[in-house]
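Sat 14:20. Reprocessing the chain from the morning session after the first attempt stalled halfway. Input below, unchanged.
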Amino acid sequence: MPHNLNKEIKEEFKMKNTSKGFTLIELVMVTIILGILAAVAIPRYMETVKKAEEAAEDATISAIKAGLESHATEQMMANGRRSWPANPFSALETPPSTYTTDGTQADTDGEWTWVPVADATNGKIYHQRADNSVHEWAYSWGDDQTAAGDDTGTLGARATTTATP
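Finished this time. Tokens:
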């Protein structure tokens, strides 16, 4: 009987030692599953970042539009004519924290800039995203309206740019 007991103890001890850790197949399967998840998650994450940046740009442009309308109303009250300022960011009570006045196209992540052109009645608003793409909005503060007493300009739609002004 003691001999069988000794054999049982050896078998039980042997089983406990073989069940520790993961097999190579298990580790390979986990690696494959993580690779598939990453292949799906990374593009979705990048798309989410792009949409978030577009939403932030839209919010800033909406604030500029509201500021321009407020400025036009103040000008109407002061001198009888609605007009927009030469620099669209000056219509904002608080410009974006990344707004710079260097007069060049945005070249830093998150930077907003205003670049007037030579004819002194229009220019472009630029914003650089985290992916280094630069987007622009055409802005004109000249008399683009046909209504009497309305000298407001226009603010164009977003466009992607690659060239420097």
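The mean pLDDT is 85.
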